[in-house]
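Q: I'm writing a short explainer about Intradiol ring-cleavage dioxygenase for a general audience and would like to include a description of its predicted shape. Could you first generate the structure from this sequence?
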Amino acid sequence: MDHHRHQRPLPRPDADLEDQGLAFDLGTLDRRRVLRVLGLGAVAVGVAACGSTTPASTTSPGEIPDETAGPFPGDGSTGANVLTRSGIVRSDIRTSFGGPTGVAEGVPMVLELTVADLARGGSPFAGAAVYVWHCNREGDYSLYSERIAGENYLRGVQIADAAGRVRFTSIVPACYEGRWPHVHLEVYPDAPSIVDAGNAIATSQVALPEDTCRQVYAQPGYEQSATALDDVTLTSDNVFGDDGGASQLATVTGDVATGYTVALPVRIDTRTAPAAGGPGGPDGAPPGVRPSR
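A: Of course. Here's the predicted structure. Afterward I'll give you a sentence or two in plain language.
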């Protein structure tokens, strides 16, 4: 898959690619390769210290699997780019921002992700920007689904603290036909990188445990999710099915009355290039959902 999703005009149209100049060359490289070439930043230092020869297309042992961003990422790779909007860096993603005023109803969920870099011995990836998004209680995605195309809720970015941790306040997403209940995530090396989906260094998904989903889907508003969950398993799901979501299955505490805390370690390796992401892919879109035009 080509991870450079945006075609750029050549600064010297009549010259060969190798003669376009340093600025063009650096813009063509992904962020990790730029750091490696220039020897800049903590990531590059960590990589150099490890002396890795890991091929760029592999996934390291222990690294969270690369998955499709699906048809509704809202990162500019297909349709709108919510990542360029003021206000996207926020912890409570239940409301829309920047004009729309919609609020996503549902059982409260706090999502805690802890990002670590295997290239630096699994140390916390402080400063990484994590973008998460998921469907609402009805199985619709903001920006795309017809009923909520004008909303942008259940999308947000947090910057990892010194422990590599990000925390989002949200609601438990629905289960819809063909997919196990999940949350999407993209990891970027820093906050300025989020404006371009091509800068993502990891794209994956969080799987929710069945017992939690059963409890939630017995609540008013989630009726269709209970039916959909009966028709899918972690091993039949077209994203988690290859290993049953072994490293993507979150741990959960809490209950329906007080809300749930959903936690997952997100281990990435900055020596490897992402093998997924991008628009489309077998995400199992909810029936009848089409991108906004």
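A: For your explainer, you could say: Helices lie at 22-28, 31-38, 41-50, 210-217, 223-229.
Q: Perfect, that's easy to follow.
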